[in-house]
Amino acid sequence: MRTALCDAFGIDYPIFAFTPSEHVAAAVSRAGGLGVLGCVRFNDAEELDKALTWMDDNTDGKPYGVDVVMPMKIPTEGTSTDLSSYIPEDHKKWVDETLLKLGVPPLPEGEGREGVLGWLHSMARSHVDVALQHRPVLIANALGTPPVDVIEQCHAAGLKVAALAGAPKHAVSHVANGVDIIVAQGYEAGGHTGEIASMVLTPDIVDAVGQDVPVLGAGGIGSGRQIAASLALGAQGVWTGSIWLGTEEYRNLAGNQGWETAFLRATSSDTVRTRIYTGKPARLLKTKWTEAWADEDAPAPLPMPLQNLLVADAHNRINASGDPDVISMPVGQIVGRMNEVRPVAEVMADLVAEFEATVKKLDGIAGI
Amino acid sequence: MRTALCDAFGIDYPIFAFTPSEHVAAAVSRAGGLGVLGCVRFNDAEELDKALTWMDDNTDGKPYGVDVVMPMKIPTEGTSTDLSSYIPEDHKKWVDETLLKLGVPPLPEGEGREGVLGWLHSMARSHVDVALQHRPVLIANALGTPPVDVIEQCHAAGLKVAALAGAPKHAVSHVANGVDIIVAQGYEAGGHTGEIASMVLTPDIVDAVGQDVPVLGAGGIGSGRQIAASLALGAQGVWTGSIWLGTEEYRNLAGNQGWETAFLRATSSDTVRTRIYTGKPARLLKTKWTEAWADEDAPAPLPMPLQNLLVADAHNRINASGDPDVISMPVGQIVGRMNEVRPVAEVMADLVAEFEATVKKLDGIAGI
């Protein structure tokens, strides 16, 4: 499985793996793909620096990438204390009452951490600055075109820049601003996603940006058949995310069994696209928590970055409780296929083998 | 492009084409695919009989299919006059006022036709009876499992039965009731559709029903690249619909230029999944009509079959006006690719040629 992207990045397979875990990212890179560490969870630059140092030491010299969240339009800025004042009291009250109803206990005294500030522009810029002290080969932006000066900063350091797009017009705008690689994020994907499904979106974006701009197919990809489908649609590689939650290496980050129970039993019908995680539409596992927000009495989600601050403490409490019925987890429709926990290297080997078998099957159908 | 379905049906390509036009269906069958005539628009059994007689005479002896709409759970039955009494006056008033706001004129005195009764169970049964007087090779049900006695009736006449499924559990239930072929209808499809996109749904259904049951991939398929993707996902053929609206043969049915203008300019972002057409979620072109129903002041859509009766006259008026800004048209996200009107035979030839070129490209990537 070789495309031009393999040569561009010095990787064996054009399989890009987005993950918040440095253990997963490093294992993907060691297995011949490109592990991409999601930075949004790092509130503290030193924490990210430490994770990237660990990756430098544990990737056998193989390339890796980092992913930041940098909206082009700068939303409300400030510390979490400043920003809290914009959150209506009724919203806070509803969240507290809902957690009580769902049986989610408070955190033990002194535990818990600040709301995720990675959604803030200033924080994302510091993530880029830290990353450039290490040896990533790719900076991806999970939310629109990065600011042009950041793109130039990355290019000057010899990095490629990727950006997610949910519609052809966004992809064209990314390219006009200097983005090198487009991640075509289909409706079925976990996390922030648009309305157009991969079957239509990938070829639409491939044709919109032209053959000089590589496109990665994203959304619904968790098997070699799906990689073959995405490359048939014109992608030069694939961008995967959800499936890496189901790996042994991810257990270093997950912290409890609730997550595993939740995604191991879920089917492809058990996700929902909602604004309750960040303020923008994102696909999550369907649980009692997402269902509560869909009730008639629930408040409308707040705009980014306020919504994530509103629910940050709730997420801490839910995660600490480990209740799989309530868990708050961004995940794509491919969750229906995450039915066992395996080592990253084994998942990678299966992706490649099934891709090859699929192409041979298509040869038979085409009579080649 | 040959799979086992080609032998089962005596067709050259496993490309199934759903269309309400006998002219399109016959042209697809003549070009080596399987044209499937949608019956829902025929209120009158004699009208359908005439269309099928025309198809018998204009398919060069090639096989064709018919598609009926037969919900397994029988909804409210009766004549359109009886059923009208279930429709709230406020709904009727809102529709009238909305048409006035959108500038849709009333029909000339004496024109217009009765609401579409094809959504009624009794009407769908009469469609099957009429079809069996002709020579279809396939009866498809666009809405769930057909009643078991209808499946047996078709099997006794030597026909295969297909049914649409938007989730693996529905596919498994179809097969348990005797359905021969599953149409995996992805989120991106036009008309009635579920939440799971083709990239995930097709392999989910293929694996759920097992290798003895052929699956057709449906939703988002309008090019040879998309056929290759669908077959890579495990489908034995594809079920297409929207793209045939963009053919010269369809002009026999369309009646005015409004439709063409509307879909030629639409992008893949210009559809919406809504209950306003039939009472069940279906994907339509996004127009001022669908936007009006999304307004806060709009009433909630009624259940099937009442919603279609409520809007039937509005659809007649909108279609007669031919205003592309208001048109009410079921269509999939592939509408973004329908940018010129061509003969059916030319579309078919392109699908086959691009499929072959795509498989050769995948061979290069796989190093075969």
Automatic annotation (TrEMBL), chains A, B:
Q: Which UniProt keywords apply?
A: Flavoprotein, FMN, Monooxygenase, Oxidoreductase
Q: GO MF annotations for this entry?
A: monooxygenase activity
Its EC number(s): 1.13.12.-
- SUPFAM superfamilies reported in the protein's UniProt record: Inosine monophosphate dehydrogenase (IMPDH)
Pfam families for this protein: NMO (PF03060)
**Enzyme class per UniProt:** oxidoreductase
Task: From the Swiss-Prot or TrEMBL record, give the protein name.
Answer: Nitronate monooxygenase family protein
